[in-house]
Design goal:
single chain, 202 residues, alpha+beta, 6-stranded mixed beta sheet
């Protein structure tokens, strides 16, 4: 029988424990316990997510801030039904419920902020500089950018869809699944030429 304390000690990757993802403002304010219904599946997906995507980000940019990590089905359902920026539990793009699906339908994601880039974004840096860096360096499935702090949802799936969307101008879809970037690699590299040297593992 998992306890929340025991679960929180589970290490997902070099830099992250599952406790890093269990805090939920919705749960804390409304009195829910944000605990997976299927802890083993949440751990499996969380390890894949952190190892493939978050560890390389933290290795390269320094601290990655988790804005919204795991959500239990109960917490996410409440958030959706009360207009708290949560997708429906059965929505295939809902990435915060790590223990929802099996096999090739597994998914894990989080809303994150990279403070190194947030400081530059605040001074006018184009969010697409980071978007194209992510595309050229990480095996992400989906990325969705938001205006505040240039936070973004970062999603892992066993088979990556490779889609990028944004609520920041220019709003909409930057890259559709299966499509090639509309900027050549040389132009994309110029965008992020001043970024730290990539230290991740692919």
């Amino acid at each position: 029988m998992w306890s929340l304390e025991t679960l929180g000690r589970v290490r997902l990757s070099e830099h992250f424990y599952i406790r890093d993802f269990l805090y939920s403002e919705i749960a804390a304010f409304h009195g829910f316990q944000n605990m997976p219904e299927r802890p083993d599946l949440a751990i499996e997906c969380g390890r894949a997510f952190c190892g493939a995507l978050l560890d390389p980000l933290q290795d390269t940019f320094g601290r990655v801030a988790i804005r919204s990590g795991y959500r239990s089905p109960e917490v996410n359902r409440f958030g959706n039904e009360n207009g708290l920026n949560c997708a429906r539990n059965d929505n295939p793009i809902e990435c915060h419920i790590w223990d929802r699906e099996e096999g090739e339908n597994r998914i894990a994601g989080a809303s994150v902020v990279i403070p190194w880039f947030a400081d530059r974004y605040e001074k006018g840096r184009d969010w697409r500089d980071l978007a194209w860096w992510l595309h050229d360096h990480l095996p992400y499935s989906e990325v969705f950018f938001f205006p505040k702090l240039c936070a973004f949802n970062l999603v892992w799936r066993p088979v990556a869809r490779r889609r990028i969307d944004s609520y920041i101008a220019p709003r909409g879809c930057l890259l559709k699944p299966g499509a090639e970037p509309d900027e050549p690699l040389s132009v994309r590299r110029d965008r992020y030429a001043d970024f730290p040297v990539f230290l991740g593992r692919r």
